[in-house]
Prior knowledge:
Two copies of one chain form a homodimer.
Chain A: H1 16-38, H2 45-52, H3 56-62, H4 66-90, H5 95-112, H6 114-123, H7 128-132, H8 137-156, H9 165-185, H10 192-207
Amino acid sequence: MSGRPSKREDAKRPSTEEKYSTKQERILRAAIGVLAERGFHRTTIHDIAQAAGVADGTIYLYFKNKDQLLIELFEEVMARALRLFRDALREEQEAEGKLRAFLHTHLRLVEHDPEVAQIISVELRQSSIFIKEYKNPLFGEYLKIIGEILQEGIEEGVFRSDLRPSLITRAIFGAMDEISLAWLLSRRDLSLEESAEALCEMILQGVRRCPVSAPSGA
Amino acid sequence: MSGRPSKREDAKRPSTEEKYSTKQERILRAAIGVLAERGFHRTTIHDIAQAAGVADGTIYLYFKNKDQLLIELFEEVMARALRLFRDALREEQEAEGKLRAFLHTHLRLVEHDPEVAQIISVELRQSSIFIKEYKNPLFGEYLKIIGEILQEGIEEGVFRSDLRPSLITRAIFGAMDEISLAWLLSRRDLSLEESAEALCEMILQGVRRCPVSAPSGA
Lengths: 218, 218
């Protein structure tokens, strides 16, 4: 449920719930390695069980099937990302700074944990259950954060009043996601964080009221 | 190889090659319907054979497997799209008009043929062979068109000189693709072509030298 083991803040007494959560987390962590290496379709429940050091049947105590395991993995990663996004935004007062912080945080997450990012950007899309049936409330929250920043910027008079936040939110996510995907499928020798700044500039200029608040835009 | 039957310009004598091409096309056309309805993983070669009115074995005369069939379908669709893009660009003299024409053409193609667009945007990503092994030269050509427009705009002095064309090309494709995907997976009651204009405005403003050439940007 909470963050990844190295960053857990709440490692207190090992209650029954804790033990449950620990084994479930162990399986999820093992799944990350196997899925990133073999891909969604070539990974079997048996592979994951072996990597986690548990019996195949144990996996089914926690996850209905491979799609469900992937979805829970996604939910854990997204919950952690959403916390990091909110932390990054809390330090910013204005919409422009918030949008910049959001975009940088997204690409930093991808660059710092490419195995997990690959599962989210590449493997997850191979689960038709995820794509077509799963409602995905956490992705909704992710989009909502961008939408709220855009709305705030419009109210501050810094972003164009004719922006359509829901449309531009999807466009911004799509741009970020494609940049991440291209990087993940490449040799990863360019710095994604450096790209973040160039992308930020283009997106910010695109949403700004111009030229009023961007006299030195070029 | 060439466009869809209703738009074929080259229906001349039915040579052996033509007959070959016709049966192959019949299979591909049948596959579009089946894949869009059932999805990549739930579609079998048998389903496609039935829909095309041929024996299962006939499919294997033309396509090695389901992934290969999907890739050939993609190549046919992309080859047609690339011709349409080039036609649309030929009428424009300047980079800004070209970029606008390109974005509108992309979203118009999706809106006018959602079945095919769904296969490209949703089903194709479920083929790990397509995502990870296929070199995809036609997608490379698609990106090259955007990259050349950006370069042209920089040379005209209309687009920012600090743009990184290869990065911004991916960002633009990602934005368009995500807008299309969101529309395809929705009830499709909004007009995608109307969205195209709002998206164009944001992208053009984002890449323009500002405020020099965009005094009335807001």
